[in-house]
Amino acid sequence: MTFSERIWPKVEPLWATYLDHPFVKGLGDDSLDPKKFQHWLIQDYNYLIEYARLFAIGAAKAPNLKIMQTFTDLLYGVLFDEMDGHREYAKEYGLSLENIENTENAEVTTAYTSYMLNVSQAGNVENVMAAILTCVWSYYYIGHELAKKEDATSQPHYGSWIETYSNDDYKELVDQSITLMDELAAGKPERELEQLEDIVITTSRYEYLFWDMAWNQENWRTPDSFSHSSTSY
Ligand SMILES: Cc1ncc(CO)c(N)n1
């Protein structure tokens, strides 16, 4: 059994909860409050900057040239293709990239990216790929599911979001990631496989929190008496 085959039944029930989350439902039926989408966009843009570092760590830790090329390919995809999409949304909403980049990461964004960077730096290349897997794959899981609705991708507000994460180019990127994960995990002892599973499960929990953070437009939970906030949008 491949790693992706053994992890699927463990994460699919978690991912299914994303489909029930009002943020994701709002993308699906195009009813999402644009303010909530903008909160996601701003946090996700900054998330992607940290997330991109994972691919660079993967390239640095790659055991051979082919794997180095794969990580670099995926890195390019995040920094240019995926983030270009975000830059287009920013333009549509009149948000300046400078303001977005200067916005403080929310509590959840900080926790999620710090966790991924930590397990990646502490371990070998398979840890890096395990930290990436949920991000890449669960967005396709959502995009693919939402795209099943007739005309979903041509809806005026969030149709392009659904298109981005369900199209064939994105699927290819997901397949490439799953294949690499399976190659890296093949033949590893059970104890190590369980550690990799933990990473995929923990990131799956963070994904839910990220949707919830965007829905609630959260930054940091702080005591009422502590009013510091450098959020600048
Ligand atoms: C939080 C999050 N997870 C996954 C993706 C997909 O790359 C994304 N853009 N944002």
Automatic annotation (TrEMBL):
Pathway terms, separated by semicolons? Cofactor biosynthesis; thiamine diphosphate biosynthesis
Key words of the record = Hydrolase, Thiamine biosynthesis
Is the Isomerase keyword given for this protein?
Answer: no
One cellular component (GO) term of this entry: cytosol
Q: What is its EC number?
A: 3.5.99.2
Which CDD domains is this protein grouped with? TenA_C_BhTenA-like
Q: Name one GO biological process term.
A: thiamine biosynthetic process
One example of the protein's molecular function in GO is: thiaminase activity
> Which protein family is it in?
Belongs to the TenA family.
Q: How does it assemble?
A: Homotetramer.
Task: Tell me what this protein is called.
Answer: Aminopyrimidine aminohydrolase
Q: Which organism is it from?
A: Aerococcus suis
